[in-house]
Amino acid sequence: MIEVEQLRKEYGSLTAVHDVTFTARPGEIFGLLGPNGAGKTTTIGCISTLLAPSAGHIRVMGHDVVKDGIEARRSMGVVPQEIALYEDLSAEENLSYWGGAQGLRGAELRERIRTVLDLTGLLDRAKEPIKRFSGGMKRRLNFACGIVHRPKVLLLDEPTVGVDPQSRVRLLELVRDQARSGACVLYTTHYMEEAESLCDRLAIVDHGRIIAQGTLAELRALLGERDILRLTGTFEPEHVRSALESVEGVEIIHADETLLALSMSDASHRLPMIFAALNGSELRGTTLTQPSLESLFIKLTGSDLRE
Amino acid sequence: MRFVWITALKDLRRLRREPVAVLTWLAIPSFISIILTLVFGPGGAQPHGTLLIADQDRSIGATMLTNAFGQGALGKMLTVEHVSESEGRRRMDRGEASALIVIPSGFTASFVTSQPVNIDLVRNPAQRVLPDIIEDSLGIMLARASSYRTASQPPPIQLDADIIPDKTEQPDGFAAIILPGALFMGIFFIAGALASDVWRERSSGALRRIATTPARFGAFVAGKLLASALLFGAIGGAALVVAHELMHLRVASFPAAIGWIAASGSCLYLMIMLIQSAASSERVSTFTTNLVTLPLVMLGGGFVPFEWMPRTLARIGEWTPNGWCVMQLRAALSGSLQPVTFASIAVILVAILFIDVRAIRRTAC
User: Fold this and answer.
1) Do A84 and B214 touch (CB under 8 A)?
2) What pLDDT is recorded for position B147?
3) How many domains does chain B have?
4) Do A180 and A132 belong together in one domain?
5) B351 interface with A at CB cutoff 8 Å
6) B159-217 residue pLDDT tens
7) Which among A50, A51, A70 has CB closest to B214?
8) What CATH code is carried by the domain that includes residue B139?
């Protein structure tokens, strides 16, 4: 279990994380979804005891990470964004080292190394220096090093960045296996498809704040069954607002000189009416997004998740 | 404690897989040693040293005698310096010259009036060839001067040759001059290469990962230190055995000498690691390390032994970290390394280790 209460992390005058609160339970995959720089890695850094929180409390399996860091770390497995491995050692040697760092030894360590190598499909390459591995294989080994000691809490910081589609599918299945076996998984990503397919509950993070959290169904309910239409071009915001008042069921999420974001149901059928209302504005691009985390993010922040 | 060992084992395995870096750094001092041996070694160029003369007579006879050492073949081997007797004895105590000749007041007058007179010759026990040459030459000069007297008269001039107590107990031989400096040059270079591994571990994220495990960060750095100590001990041991067998290097105690190389080499490693962890980037760390290492290696008897350096530079060099290590290795080779020196290096190691752990942890997070 991970309990985060009013977490705040400041770097001088910059506040990277603003009063973040959430709880991730055993057997659950809890996602932190947000664009790069949203504060996801800082949040994981505080939970994993790498960073000292400026304010708030974090407990991992009941252990306060500030006061009882070593005990908190004992129950934790971390899969960092970087491939934190020794390239000149073999997969087996890497696992042996990281398992040893977690306190495993002897027959138990050997058994766990074999199990996770098998799990990640690297058993036949166990003795090979990993500098010969593909990027996807290294990612899988990076993951294996995080779970070699059977952690009760697993922190995954964008573990699929730069991974080929096949390895990604395999990695996501491994993450699900961990949750099924009872681990509490905290998963950060900026890939909304990943978050949608993987996470039981989610917190959407932007500029260091949680702007929405809940199950996927709860988050979708926030959006309703409405599509998001994003138009780029040259607009006069006041003129646009008055022109769109006449189109029924259209909500203006964002309007400035270059971007117009609208929320509506059945947007594809309303497009002719909208274009007619915007007659006189110079339109350069149109993007229609059906209800998803992406559209929720746009609705909540006015900007694209990948911007 | 177990994590210290597995970290050391991990680093040694990695070194075994990539031995080229270590061998390259060892090749430089080996190459320089070979060149020095070929150019200046036994059977090569003639030795060169300093002769101190305390001329208390300042007469024509004394001047003729002392001038003889600055001429011809002797002049090529010896730099003659005039000093007071007290200064000369002080410098001999510090092993700064091959010999001291004290010409007493009234030397010429005694010679002319056939009165007996003593000339003191103080020899540097750490050297063999030059003090022998000086003593023999002085003996010949005095015998020749005496031959002008009639055969019935007793020799008017008596030469008293003393060997001062050997305080530094520097080992004899060419290998003893060359090897310690060359060995520590190699160790200094390897220490720099090993220390830079912290930057690789930092950029790969391994340091951050360590910080998220229950293992102590201090144990991690101590493991790296243990690996470096084992490596330096192995290199030192191999170098001493080779020099002992092939160059007849006198080694009073192999364990003491190897222990010293391992301990002091590790200290240099931690020192460079500290410099590197304070840098803002890997490039800056490499630049800073070179900026510190190269002058220290030059001054610290790496490229040129202290005996062949100008005295002032040699004295500065002996107090550089690596220069001090070289001097103490010489003491270990001659069997005069003091337990207190070992205790000092242990204290220094613990102190730098403590600072390093804090610095590297800060770097990791």
Assistant:
1) no
2) 64
3) 2
4) yes
5) no
6) 566 555 544 444 456 677 788 888 899 898 899 888 888 888 988 899 999 999 999 98
7) A70
8) 3.40.1710.10
